[in-house]
Write a structure and sequence with these properties.
This is Caprin-1_dimer domain-containing protein. By secondary structure, the chain is mostly helical. It contains 11 helices and 2 strands; from the N terminus they run H-H-H-H-H-H-E-E-H-H-H-H-H.
């Protein structure tokens, strides 16, 4: 029979089927029966040494009875208090776990969004309501994406896939808990949390247009790796880059050895802002201009068609 833990015993405790309560109750009942028998015999005894001795026995048993009743009451009260405390603790733990999962999912989404070229450019230039990050911070976001958002290949061995997810989850929890443990290079969970919070608190993601949100969803559905990179640096992503060399380099990172690759790249994270070369400035938030141009061209074409029909 498997031994139960303290929490299991307390959580499953019920006064109706508690063994200790049953034993104490049986003992109390035996003492009550003994007292009844002694009191019946006491009525047939005349005054004397025997009657006095019998009365002393009755008194002693009654004291035992009172003591056992007190023990039973204290035991039941203590078990009830402990069970209520355990239930409240489990509720707090469950709420804390849910809050941590919410924070983890939010940070994962922020990290994934930083891989979008338009968002990456905004963070590089400090435009569109974004904070301005340096090359080292942007590279850290790339490495975080590899670590916290690993690509899941269901053709992989279950052990490899589970290890990848376990590493991602454990490091995500370190970030959420503001841990002082190192995650990438010299960056701790606290350092990464501060960086992600600064991105979340700026106006970039809140001001993100709907078409960019749709593009992010499409990219997530099509499982296309983000085309974003640091040129002349540790990261293999390139903003706006579609060269075969970039793709081949990225595919080598997206394997079951993500952690080893991250360690390899993080050892060379001594960058300056000049390391980030913007290959192509994205046309960000120009929806109105595009729509206006399209409407004008459509109006011109339709006018020419009407003129041609009338002349005919």
């Amino acid at each position: 029979m498997q031994e139960q833990s303290y929490d299991d015993i307390i959580s499953k405790w019920n006064s109706g089927n508690d063994i200790i309560k049953m034993l104490l109750t049986d003992k109390i009942q035996d003492l009550k029966e003994q007292i009844e028998m002694l009191e019946m015999g006491q009525r047939h005894l005349s005054a004397g040494n025997i009657a006095c001795a019998n009365q002393m026995v009755i008194t002693m048993i009654m004291n035992q009875l009172d003591a056992l009743n007190n023990v039973l009451n204290v035991y039941l009260s203590e078990m009830t208090i402990r069970k209520k405390a355990l239930i409240k603790q489990k509720q707090r733990d469950r709420k804390q776990f849910i809050d941590q999962m919410i924070a983890l999912l939010e940070y994962k989404e922020i990290i994934a969004n930083t891989q979008i070229p338009e968002i990456s450019y905004s963070l590089t230039s400090g435009t569109n309501g974004a904070i301005k990050l340096n090359g080292q911070e942007l590279t850290l976001l790339n490495l975080l994406h590899l670590l916290i958002n690993p690509t899941i290949n269901f053709k992989e061995n279950n052990k490899i896939r589970s290890r990848k997810l376990k590493i991602a989850f454990e490091n995500g929890i370190k970030v959420i808990k503001d841990s002082s443990f190192r995650i990438i290079d010299h960056y701790t969970g606290h350092d990464i949390k501060c960086l992600l919070d600064s991105i979340r608190n700026c106006q970039l993601l809140a001001n993100m247009p709907s078409w960019l949100e749709n593009m992010i969803v499409i990219q997530q559905m099509s499982f296309i790796a983000p085309a974003r990179a640091v040129t002349n640096s540790a990261s293999c992503f390139a903003i706006g880059s579609s060269s075969s060399s970039s793709k081949s380099d990225c595919s080598s990172i997206d394997t079951d050895s993500n952690v080893d690759q991250i360690d390899k790249y993080s050892n060379t994270m001594n960058f300056t802002d000049e390391n980030y070369k913007i290959l192509k400035k994205p046309n960000y938030c120009n929806d109105n201009k595009i729509l206006k141009t399209n409407n004008e061209s459509l109006s011109t074409n339709s006018g020419q068609q009407v003129t041609t029909i009338n002349s005919t």
